[in-house]
Amino acid sequence: MPVLELKNIIKNYPDGQNVNEVLKEINFHVNQGEFAAIVGPSGAGKSTLLTIMGALLSPTSGSVLLNNQDIGQLSKKQQTDIRLNKIGFIFQNSDLIPYLKISDQLKFIQKISNKNPIDSDKILKELGLGHRLNSYPNALSGGEKQRVAIARAFINQPDLILADEPTASLDSKRGHEVVKIIQETVHQQNKAAVMVTHDERVLDLVDSIWQIEDGRLKRVKA
Protein backbone atom coordinates (compact mmCIF):
# COMPACT_ATOMS: atom_id res chain seq x y z
CA MET A 1 0.00 0.00 0.00
CA PRO A 2 1.42 3.43 -0.91
CA VAL A 3 2.04 5.90 1.92
CA LEU A 4 0.68 8.66 -0.32
CA GLU A 5 -1.62 8.19 -3.29
CA LEU A 6 -3.29 10.81 -5.47
CA LYS A 7 -6.31 9.78 -7.53
CA ASN A 8 -7.59 11.88 -10.41
CA ILE A 9 -6.52 15.19 -8.89
CA ILE A 10 -7.84 18.28 -10.70
CA LYS A 11 -7.15 21.85 -9.61
CA ASN A 12 -8.83 24.77 -11.34
CA TYR A 13 -8.72 28.50 -10.65
CA PRO A 14 -11.11 31.11 -12.02
CA ASP A 15 -9.40 33.42 -14.52
CA GLY A 16 -11.85 36.18 -15.39
CA GLN A 17 -14.59 34.50 -17.36
CA ASN A 18 -12.39 31.49 -18.01
CA VAL A 19 -11.05 28.64 -15.90
CA ASN A 20 -7.32 28.04 -15.51
CA GLU A 21 -6.65 24.29 -15.32
CA VAL A 22 -3.50 23.99 -13.20
CA LEU A 23 -3.63 20.23 -12.56
CA LYS A 24 -5.31 17.77 -14.92
CA GLU A 25 -6.26 14.25 -13.81
CA ILE A 26 -3.13 13.69 -11.70
CA ASN A 27 -2.43 10.17 -10.48
CA PHE A 28 0.61 9.55 -8.29
CA HIS A 29 1.92 7.30 -5.53
CA VAL A 30 5.00 6.98 -3.32
CA ASN A 31 5.80 3.96 -1.18
CA GLN A 32 7.48 3.45 2.17
CA GLY A 33 11.26 3.83 1.82
CA GLU A 34 10.92 5.61 -1.55
CA PHE A 35 12.35 9.03 -2.41
CA ALA A 36 10.47 10.49 -5.38
CA ALA A 37 11.22 13.66 -7.34
CA ILE A 38 8.81 15.77 -9.37
CA VAL A 39 10.41 17.89 -12.06
CA GLY A 40 9.07 20.31 -14.63
CA PRO A 41 9.24 23.88 -15.91
CA SER A 42 8.13 26.91 -13.90
CA GLY A 43 4.36 27.27 -13.89
CA ALA A 44 3.77 23.59 -14.60
CA GLY A 45 1.99 23.04 -11.28
CA LYS A 46 4.75 21.47 -9.13
CA SER A 47 4.29 23.63 -6.05
CA THR A 48 0.50 23.48 -6.31
CA LEU A 49 0.70 19.70 -6.41
CA LEU A 50 3.02 19.54 -3.39
CA THR A 51 0.73 21.88 -1.46
CA ILE A 52 -2.21 19.57 -2.14
CA MET A 53 -0.15 16.57 -1.01
CA GLY A 54 0.49 18.36 2.29
CA ALA A 55 -3.19 19.15 2.94
CA LEU A 56 -2.45 22.86 2.67
CA LEU A 57 -4.69 23.25 -0.39
CA SER A 58 -7.79 21.36 -1.46
CA PRO A 59 -8.09 20.00 -5.00
CA THR A 60 -11.08 20.92 -7.13
CA SER A 61 -11.77 17.19 -7.39
CA GLY A 62 -10.01 13.90 -6.73
CA SER A 63 -8.65 12.14 -3.64
CA VAL A 64 -5.49 12.50 -1.55
CA LEU A 65 -4.88 9.31 0.41
CA LEU A 66 -2.34 9.20 3.25
CA ASN A 67 -1.99 5.65 4.56
CA ASN A 68 -5.25 4.91 2.70
CA GLN A 69 -7.11 7.71 4.53
CA ASP A 70 -8.68 10.42 2.38
CA ILE A 71 -7.30 13.53 4.10
CA GLY A 72 -9.45 15.77 1.94
CA GLN A 73 -12.51 14.54 3.83
CA LEU A 74 -11.12 15.53 7.23
CA SER A 75 -11.97 18.67 9.19
CA LYS A 76 -9.52 21.59 9.22
CA LYS A 77 -8.43 20.64 12.74
CA GLN A 78 -7.86 17.04 11.72
CA GLN A 79 -5.83 18.20 8.73
CA THR A 80 -3.73 20.38 11.03
CA ASP A 81 -3.05 17.35 13.25
CA ILE A 82 -2.08 15.34 10.16
CA ARG A 83 0.39 18.01 9.07
CA LEU A 84 1.91 18.17 12.54
CA ASN A 85 2.23 14.46 13.21
CA LYS A 86 2.19 12.63 9.86
CA ILE A 87 3.89 15.01 7.39
CA GLY A 88 7.28 16.71 7.58
CA PHE A 89 7.89 19.79 5.42
CA ILE A 90 11.21 21.08 4.06
CA PHE A 91 10.91 24.46 2.35
CA GLN A 92 13.43 26.11 0.02
CA ASN A 93 14.14 28.96 2.46
CA SER A 94 14.29 26.76 5.60
CA ASP A 95 11.77 29.05 7.40
CA LEU A 96 13.44 28.76 10.79
CA ILE A 97 12.07 30.79 13.71
CA PRO A 98 14.60 33.67 14.04
CA TYR A 99 14.37 34.10 17.82
CA LEU A 100 14.83 30.41 18.72
CA LYS A 101 18.20 28.72 19.14
CA ILE A 102 18.81 25.77 16.85
CA SER A 103 18.20 23.15 19.56
CA ASP A 104 14.94 24.89 20.47
CA GLN A 105 13.66 24.85 16.87
CA LEU A 106 13.11 21.08 17.15
CA LYS A 107 11.95 21.08 20.78
CA PHE A 108 9.23 23.57 19.89
CA ILE A 109 7.83 21.20 17.25
CA GLN A 110 7.96 18.32 19.73
CA LYS A 111 6.15 20.39 22.35
CA ILE A 112 3.13 21.16 20.17
CA SER A 113 2.78 17.61 18.82
CA ASN A 114 1.49 14.48 20.52
CA LYS A 115 4.40 12.24 19.56
CA ASN A 116 6.76 10.70 22.08
CA PRO A 117 9.81 12.98 22.28
CA ILE A 118 13.13 11.77 20.94
CA ASP A 119 16.57 13.30 21.50
CA SER A 120 16.51 16.31 19.19
CA ASP A 121 20.07 17.37 20.03
CA LYS A 122 21.31 13.93 19.03
CA ILE A 123 19.67 14.31 15.61
CA LEU A 124 21.31 17.70 15.11
CA LYS A 125 24.69 16.28 16.09
CA GLU A 126 24.26 13.42 13.61
CA LEU A 127 23.72 16.07 10.92
CA GLY A 128 26.98 17.78 11.84
CA LEU A 129 25.37 20.61 13.81
CA GLY A 130 26.61 19.77 17.32
CA HIS A 131 28.60 23.01 17.44
CA ARG A 132 25.50 25.03 16.47
CA LEU A 133 23.03 23.92 19.15
CA ASN A 134 23.09 27.28 20.93
CA SER A 135 23.30 29.40 17.77
CA TYR A 136 20.49 31.45 16.26
CA PRO A 137 19.51 31.02 12.58
CA ASN A 138 21.20 34.26 11.48
CA ALA A 139 24.58 32.78 12.45
CA LEU A 140 24.18 29.75 10.16
CA SER A 141 25.17 29.23 6.54
CA GLY A 142 22.53 28.31 3.97
CA GLY A 143 23.54 24.65 4.08
CA GLU A 144 23.41 24.57 7.87
CA LYS A 145 19.94 26.13 7.88
CA GLN A 146 18.70 23.46 5.47
CA ARG A 147 20.16 20.71 7.66
CA VAL A 148 18.21 22.14 10.61
CA ALA A 149 15.10 22.19 8.41
CA ILE A 150 15.67 18.51 7.56
CA ALA A 151 16.05 17.62 11.25
CA ARG A 152 12.88 19.55 12.03
CA ALA A 153 10.97 17.71 9.28
CA PHE A 154 11.96 14.31 10.66
CA ILE A 155 11.72 15.09 14.39
CA ASN A 156 8.17 13.81 14.83
CA GLN A 157 8.89 10.66 12.82
CA PRO A 158 6.32 11.48 10.12
CA ASP A 159 5.19 8.97 7.53
CA LEU A 160 5.69 11.42 4.66
CA ILE A 161 8.33 14.07 3.91
CA LEU A 162 7.58 16.85 1.41
CA ALA A 163 10.49 18.97 0.15
CA ASP A 164 9.88 22.09 -1.94
CA GLU A 165 13.00 23.09 -3.93
CA PRO A 166 15.35 22.34 -0.98
CA THR A 167 18.46 23.27 -3.02
CA ALA A 168 17.14 26.54 -4.48
CA SER A 169 19.31 28.79 -2.31
CA LEU A 170 22.40 26.55 -2.27
CA ASP A 171 25.38 26.05 -4.56
CA SER A 172 25.88 22.72 -6.34
CA LYS A 173 28.06 21.09 -3.66
CA ARG A 174 25.90 22.11 -0.69
CA GLY A 175 22.72 21.28 -2.59
CA HIS A 176 23.92 17.76 -3.31
CA GLU A 177 24.94 17.32 0.34
CA VAL A 178 21.50 18.41 1.56
CA VAL A 179 19.60 16.07 -0.78
CA LYS A 180 21.98 13.24 0.11
CA ILE A 181 21.01 13.73 3.78
CA ILE A 182 17.31 13.54 2.85
CA GLN A 183 17.93 10.40 0.79
CA GLU A 184 19.89 8.63 3.53
CA THR A 185 17.36 9.54 6.23
CA VAL A 186 14.43 8.37 4.09
CA HIS A 187 16.09 5.02 3.46
CA GLN A 188 17.38 4.51 7.00
CA GLN A 189 14.04 5.36 8.62
CA ASN A 190 11.95 3.75 5.86
CA LYS A 191 9.93 6.91 5.20
CA ALA A 192 8.25 8.12 2.02
CA ALA A 193 9.46 11.41 0.54
CA VAL A 194 8.52 13.64 -2.37
CA MET A 195 10.79 16.44 -3.60
CA VAL A 196 9.83 19.13 -6.09
CA THR A 197 12.95 20.42 -7.81
CA HIS A 198 14.41 22.25 -10.79
CA ASP A 199 17.85 20.92 -9.89
CA GLU A 200 18.75 18.07 -12.24
CA ARG A 201 22.12 17.71 -10.48
CA VAL A 202 20.49 15.87 -7.56
CA LEU A 203 18.29 13.48 -9.51
CA ASP A 204 20.87 10.70 -9.18
CA LEU A 205 19.89 10.52 -5.50
CA VAL A 206 16.18 9.75 -5.94
CA ASP A 207 14.43 6.43 -6.49
CA SER A 208 11.79 7.61 -8.93
CA ILE A 209 11.27 10.66 -11.14
CA TRP A 210 7.97 12.14 -12.25
CA GLN A 211 7.63 14.92 -14.80
CA ILE A 212 4.86 17.49 -14.83
CA GLU A 213 4.11 19.66 -17.83
CA ASP A 214 1.00 21.65 -18.70
CA GLY A 215 -0.67 20.26 -15.57
CA ARG A 216 -0.18 16.60 -16.51
CA LEU A 217 2.07 14.19 -14.60
CA LYS A 218 3.87 11.09 -15.85
CA ARG A 219 6.47 8.79 -14.35
CA VAL A 220 9.75 8.86 -16.29
CA LYS A 221 12.01 6.79 -14.01
CA ALA A 222 10.96 3.87 -11.83
TrEMBL record:
GO molecular function: ATP binding; ATP hydrolysis activity; transmembrane transporter activity
CDD domains: ABC_MJ0796_LolCDE_FtsE
Principal location class: membrane
Keyword Nucleotide-binding: yes
InterPro entries: AAA+_ATPase, ABC_transporter-like_ATP-bd, ABC_transporter-like_CS, ABC_transpr_LolD-like, MacB-like_ATP-bd, P-loop_NTPase
Cellular component, GO, one term: membrane protein complex
Subcellular location: Cell membrane
Membrane topology: Peripheral membrane protein
Source domain of life: Bacteria
Keyword annotations of the record: Amino-acid transport, ATP-binding, Cell membrane, Membrane, Nucleotide-binding, Transport
GO BP terms in the entry: amino acid transport
SUPFAM superfamilies the UniProt entry points to: P-loop containing nucleoside triphosphate hydrolases
Record bears the keyword ATP-binding: yes
ABC transporter domain ranges (all copies): 4-222
Xref: Gene3D superfamilies: P-loop containing nucleotide triphosphate hydrolases
Family listed: Belongs to the ABC transporter superfamily. HrtA family.
Subunit note: The complex is composed of two ATP-binding proteins (HrtA), two transmembrane proteins (HrtB) and a solute-binding protein.
Function summary: Part of the ABC transporter complex hrt involved in hemin import. Responsible for energy coupling to the transport system.
Name under which the protein is recorded: Putative hemin import ATP-binding protein HrtA
Lineage: Bacteria, Bacillati, Bacillota, Bacilli, Lactobacillales
